[in-house]
Amino acid sequence: MGDLPAARPPVTVPRRKWLCVAYAFPPINRSGTHRTLGFVRHLAHLGWDATVLSVRTAGEPVDTELLARLPSSARVIRTRWIEIIPALKRLVGRPWLRKRTAPNEGIVHRATGAAEPPATPIDRPGKRIREWVSRLLMTPDSRIGWIPFAVAAGWREMRRTRPSLVYSTSPYASAHLIALLLATTTRTPWVADFRDPWRDNPFRVAGPAFLEWLDTFLERSVFRLATHVVFNTPTAREAACLHAPFLRDKSSTILNGFDPGILLGITPVREGASDEFILAHAGEFYGTRTPLPLFEALRWLLHQIPHLAHRIRLLLIGPGSFDGIPLIELARNAGVERHVRVLGRRSHHETLARLAGSDAVLVLGSAGSKPELQVPNKLFELLALRKPMVVVACPSGPVAAILQDASADALQCAPNDIQALAEIIRERAIRRIDARPDPAFWRNVNRYDRIHRAAEMVNLFNHLSSSRSGNVPTLGEHRLDVSRQEKRRNRQARTHSTPNSLGFSFVVDK
């Protein structure tokens, strides 16, 4: 499998270099891998050659087939990283750092001969301190132990190649802190790309007040010191601009996308009988992105329309648990175990083959009252597959807007609306017999390929690298307080929205 070959640039196009700081990069197979891989691949065809600063693959899910998509001009540097908490535990385990005993522990009472109980337990405050230190050492995330190794390797590489631009992508947010140190100390333009929000992430758990302040300060430092900030949904950008209004003049939206040749070499694989209706989902369930409404909807169908429901099969591709509980156990608790098959993790190629062999695909958004800030990366590959969709997402969110703009064959309901979801699955199962494509659907899917996204990113790269002389702040120029001029700009931004200062749009062309 591979992408369609893209034309090489003319010999007159100058080659430029950019340093890409990305935790998830092939062969690591995480959801964020494909966005970064797409930029590295397609920007090479537009004259920008990447050096990728990533991590060693030990302990990460790996798909070696992804390496075939790397352009020959790309160079990948992999560094080690330390898991801070286990390392600290090993350090504390040394004799001179072990937990002290209580003051009178082990003393025998003279009158009774019984052991004297400890006066005041000292492990409780010690436990609180350990928890506080653990949270501190995981701010902004658990990959903070990558920072010193990546910064050292990044400085060596920047001295060697003199890249025109530094790019970082999160999660993990530690990548942005690495880029912050590299870009500000070398006065190099820096683009910070947010695949997921940082502070606005709905799956984020709040901590003690000081750590909340520290996390906020780190996020604001990235926003303020980055030359440009990119978000992958307009709602995520708007949410960030609400509490950092100065971002309106230095941020934009570049959506995710799919590679045009993603289906080359894909042979559909059907995981079920020909008379069954196969509804497939690929990806991980976590937080408010839960499989429980899906199981409840299937149970509703089994009670209301048993003759149809017995032919419905749910195919789940990805990690086999939710909130620490196996998916098949959750299906058993709902009484639908016989209708659910959990395949576990598969390579990208295998996943696409099974999605292509299904009758419909499931797009699952986040439940809750907050506006949807994230769009699953898999959504764009499902657009490329052009399979009928069952969509569980906020009707006013970015998922719905993308599907409408792409003219997708999608039936949608709000999260936690069990009966509506059951009705959509029933309708899809009934309509499975009619497999003829409707010309009204899928007219605008090509707007969402990664070639369009790379063109938007290269316009940004060209603009920033051509004006690098006066707009790159240094770490020493960053202050905790906001200047009077910045406060004035923030007040103006709150009263009216200013257009993007770059003068061109990064959102999909209409």
Strand order of the largest sheet: 3-2-1-4-5-6-7
Major sheet size, sense and barrel closure: 7 strands, parallel
Oligomer: single chain
By secondary-structure content and strand pairing, the structural class works out as alpha/beta
What is the approximate shape?
globular
CATH class of the largest domain, anyone?
Alpha Beta
CATH topology of the largest domain: Rossmann fold
Mean pLDDT: 82
Low-confidence blocks of residues: 1-5, 7-11, 95-123, 477-486, 494-510
CATH architectural name of the largest domain: 3-Layer(aba) Sandwich
Report on this structure.
The protein has 510 residues and is α/β, with parallel strands linked by helices. It folds into three domains: 261 residues, Rossmann fold (3-Layer(aba) Sandwich), CATH 3.40.50; 38 residues, no CATH class; 172 residues, Rossmann fold (3-Layer(aba) Sandwich), CATH 3.40.50.2000. It is 36% helix and 14% strand. The strands form three sheets. Strands 3-2-1-4-5-6-7 form a seven-stranded parallel β-sheet, with helices on both faces. It has a six-stranded parallel β-sheet with strand order 12-9-8-13-14-15, sandwiched between helices. A two-stranded antiparallel ribbon has the order 10-11. Helix 1 packs across helix 15, helix 4 runs parallel beside helix 5 and helix 8 packs across helix 14. The longest helix has 17 residues.
